[in-house]
Each structure stands twice: as C-alpha cells, then as structure tokens.
Amino acid sequence: FKQVNSDTSIFVWIDRTHFEKVLVNILSNAFKFTQDGGKIELSNVRKDNELEISIFNTGQHIKEGDMEHIYERFFQTSHANNIAGSGIGLNLSYELMQLHHGSLEACNVEPEGVKFILHLPLGRAHLTEEELLPNPQKVEQADNVEENNHRTEMLIATIDNLAHTVEGETE
Question: Crossing angle, helix 89-99 and helix 16-33, to 10 degrees?
Fold first, then answer.
C-alpha cells in the first residue's frame, strides 16, 4: 500500500463520516481484489476546481459488460477467483459522492489493474446553507480561514488515518 499526496493545501468540504465510508469501501475492495504481492496506491491531486482522489490496484479488470452496472444496488461482478460481496458498497459510495456534489468513476488500467477516481469540488460555493451546517447561525463562523483549515485537516486526517489503519491490517 502506498499513499501519495501531491498537495496538502486543498480545501474541500466533506461530511467526514460519510466520506470515510466511501474511502473505506473503495480501499476495502482494492484489498479484496488484489492478490498477495500486488500494488495498491492512493493519491490526490488538484485538477481545475476539484480534488481528484485516485485509488489504483493491480487486481483483476472489471469486465466491460459489468462496468456499466457496478454502481447498481446488489450488483456483483463475476470474478475468476469467486470473491463474494454484498453488492452494496459501490452503490453506497456512488450515492454518497453525489451527495457531496462529486462523482465516482472506475476504469481498467492496462496491463492489469483498476482505478477508482473520486471527484470532489473545491471550496464550499456549491453547498447550500442547509448542507453546510445543521445550525444556520453557525454558517457565519464557517467563513473564516481557520474553519476552512480545520475542514481540510479533517480530510487529510481521514486519508492519513485510513492509510495507517489499512497498513496496520496488512502487517
């Protein structure tokens, strides 16, 4: 497992609990479908007005006929090594990314491997007051730089904590 952070000063607003579920689901699948000695890499980069988080693994390709269905609830792709799942994780991750005004995409990488890419808009301009905070009186407090830094640290901490958790499970 390798983590690559190209930029640690990216400001995104997330619901930490729900975004963590997305990362855990995608990373869990990466570990499940990557054979011993394989490679898993988590990276982030700023592209235009978004944060792009990529999770690559050297596991089996997703069959082309299955690719268009992987985000459907209860859909399970057929794998040569008969790895079972519930068919809920990618659907949940996809829907949670939409709630974050982001997106989730998957692609096969040659010669072998799969990459999942999470796209999150930068800043908070895309969010309504109701989405920002449960208490509208606190919206004014969120305008200051200190709060923005705290939110960014939460995202970085989430990614760092997951990386350490995953590393701990593989030792």
Answer: 150
Give the C-alpha separation, 46 to 65, whole Å. 31
The DSSP annotation for the chain comes to -EEEES-S---B---HHHHHHHHHHHHHHHHHHSPTT--EEEEEEEETTEEEEEEEE-SPPPPHHHHTTTTSTT-----TT-----S-HHHHHHHHHHHTT-EEEEEE-SSS-EEEEEEEESBSTTS-HHHH-SSGGGTGGGGSHHHHHHHHHHHHHHHHHHHHHHHHHH-
- Return the pLDDT at 137: 42
pTM for this predicted structure: 0.73
pLDDT tens digits, residue range 119-145?
Answer: 999 988 898 888 876 644 443 444 444
Tell me what the pLDDT averaged over the chain comes to: 78
The predicted structure's pLDDT at residue 13 = 87
